[in-house]
Amino acid sequence: MLPLLRYTLQVRSQNREELIDVTQEVESLLLRAGIDRGLCTLFVPHTTAAVTVNENADPDVQHDLLAHLRRLVPRDGGFAHAEGNSDAHIKSSLVGVSLTLPVERGKLALGTWQAVYFCEFDGPRARHLHVYVLPVQSDDGGELR
Question: Which of 6, 59, 108, 117 pairs with 41 at a CA distance of 20 to 30 A?
Fold first, then answer.
């Protein structure tokens, strides 16, 4: 069995809310580690940020996602938590702080128009994205027939 690999990416947001495409950074880790196939888990160790997969061809999709999250969870929503970032905590929980994606031929097995986005809801800040890679060794391609 091959060992679990762990990396930490630094992500720096420029705005209070934004989606940052981290696909290339994650794939460069896979390339550096020489991973051909396996599973890649991404984890955000913050309560006001998240990670998701979404379309990368049309930036309107990212704008729409943020706009609808703002409408669903407005910043001035009358929260009991009084630090001023309660909406960011809820948005983080709604989107989620982890993803597990397959790795095939050294790349994330994403669809044509998909990318991995770090979701900032309380920036600008310096953040971390933990990347765990479980390599799989297979002689027959691993396909069920």
Answer: 59
